[in-house]
Amino acid sequence: MIKKLLLPILFLLSFNTYAQQKSGAQQFWDLLKQHCGKAYQGEITHGMTDAFKNGPLVMHVRQCNDSLIKIPFFVGEDKSRTWVLKLANSRILLKHDHRHADGSEDKVTQYGGLTSNSGTANMQIFPADQQTIDLLPAAAGNVWWITIDENSFTYNLRRIGTDRLFTVKFDLTKPIAAPTAPWGWKD
């Protein structure tokens, strides 16, 4: 009788220990990877600018593996933006890959930042890195963060010391048809 009671308890304890061994970054990564291949429509919830008024906002979790996730972000017919996430040593690097319609790199590209810690399963924070500051000195105070849960994904930007705040929120409960390849990619 005691053995029958102890077995489920031991299983739960061992499972809980395994989950605790995964860093926040790895848990976040695993959650995001569940959406690989899927696309979602979004809406601006803070900081609307003219650049984002030209059609539907779509993210497509297009490429995923154990250390790289690429998420093209389309604004109408503008397929120039891809969020590139890289996981290494329980930290995640966020870069913004900007391309022209012919696939060539924009002069303002590859900016972003590296998490300063492992974050949580539902949020990762990316302060601007030195490459970003060298490319865009005004972005020295940029902090990006991404949140994810079972219902939504948000991409956020705050420029510390200013009123600048940008948030786009995607509904993860309603996948849409996957779009064609972003600029610079091949289907």
UniProtKB/TrEMBL annotation:
Keywords: Signal. The keyword Signal applies. Residues 1-19 form the signal peptide. This is Secreted protein.
